[in-house]
Amino acid sequence: MDEFINLQLFLALTMFLTTIIAGLAPIKLLTSIKRNKEGNKTSSFLSLLSCFAGGVFLATCFLDLQPHVNMKFRKFNEQWNLKIKYPLPDLLVCIGFFAVYLLEEIFVRLFSTINNTGGSSEQIKSKRCSLEINKGKEVGILQSITFTVAMSFHSILEGIALGVQDDKAGILTLFFSLFIHKGIESFTVGLQISKSNPEKIKMVTIIAIIYSFMTPMGSLAGVFIRVIYCFSQT
């Protein structure tokens, strides 16, 4: 038991360092790209990185999360002898997508208060331009927060899955798969947040650090659950 706990603690620390380095790397990358005067090449490179990031999250959703949820749903039907043929998991995914989008729009409307006072046409145009800029910043911040919360929840569950493993082979196998997966995922999370908030380096850094804690925190929570279970069996 002590050997497994020490191994889990070491792997949690390794996972934290990996995710924080990968998460903060896009900040340095985007900063160096902006210093480059070749605008067309920079724009093309950022577009390719954005496509890569989008592909990672689409793959995470459709190749990892969705099949896992469908498998659990089938087992639930078999266990309780249910005959639900309607694809409820897919429906819930769609509901969740539109719920997050609706929540984002509501917050944007609440934050974007318009002061309807009289004035010249130039003043009105200036206010509209200022409103659009502020709205863009608010949307970027809100998208970063909701995006990070969703990915953090996913990371905690992955960490718990690692922490509850009770044999060395299972721990190492799952760790190395998560090591590669979380490295790529953390880089893309950092890239998306950095692009949404290019002028808020401190906020991006704080969000990246908080996100880096999620998988190790889930892993330690899984270890704690397994220790309690072992003590309850003795």
Automatic annotation (TrEMBL):
Swiss-Prot/TrEMBL keywords: Membrane, Transmembrane, Transmembrane helix
GO molecular function, one term: zinc ion transmembrane transporter activity
Bilayer topology annotation: Multi-pass membrane protein
N-terminal signal peptide: none
Origin: domain of life: Eukaryota
Primary localisation category: membrane
Cell compartments where the protein resides: Membrane
Transmembrane spans: 6-25, 45-66, 86-103, 169-191, 203-229
UniProt GO cellular component terms: plasma membrane
Listed Pfam families: Zip (PF02535)
Protein name: Zinc transporter ZIP3
